[in-house]
Here is the input.
Amino acid sequence: MTDATAGDHARIPVLLTPWSVEDLTLLHHSNSPAMTSHTGGPETEEALLKRQHRYEALSARPAEEGRMFRVSLEDSGEPVGSVGYWPRTWQGEEVYETGYGILPEFQGRGLGVAALRAVARAAAEAGGRRKLHAYPSVDNAASNAVLQKAGFELLGKVEFEYPPGHEIVSHDWCLDLHPVAGAADPAE
Here is the structure.
């Protein structure tokens, strides 16, 4: 488990716990129109179960092969979302990709920023890849703002396929993990 800070002075304590079989309920809760409006809409039960198995498998592999985490509030342990990283080849380079989601009732509190900073530290500590990328839709203003606040650099617009078979125009955000390893906060 790890915690994170969300702002210059405010510490937003979140815990990242490797994804497990118990997190299927959280996956169902995040499969709402509000949470999936920029990613093709809610998934079928079959697709959710496949995603659950992928997340569990990812968290059972060596850390350099990626991880999926449940994001919880440190003080209560209440689950508030998910965040993860996994390897991909992007424009000829071996990088990590990240994705995250904070449940609507917890949004606007800095938890997404805190979760991204914590997952950046986890990816940096895992080693193997130097860069962490995220590809939110250009229309997802909130997600783009969270990535900027978390210290990612906007590289530009790209065509991106997500979910498979669905082309979207995304922003390519990148964070260099080299200075993050051992840093208290990657945005500092």
In short: Confidence is low (pLDDT under 50) at residues 1-10, 184-188. The longest helix spans residues 45-60. The helical segments are 24-29, 33-36, 45-60, 111-126, 141-149. The chain has one domain: 14-176.
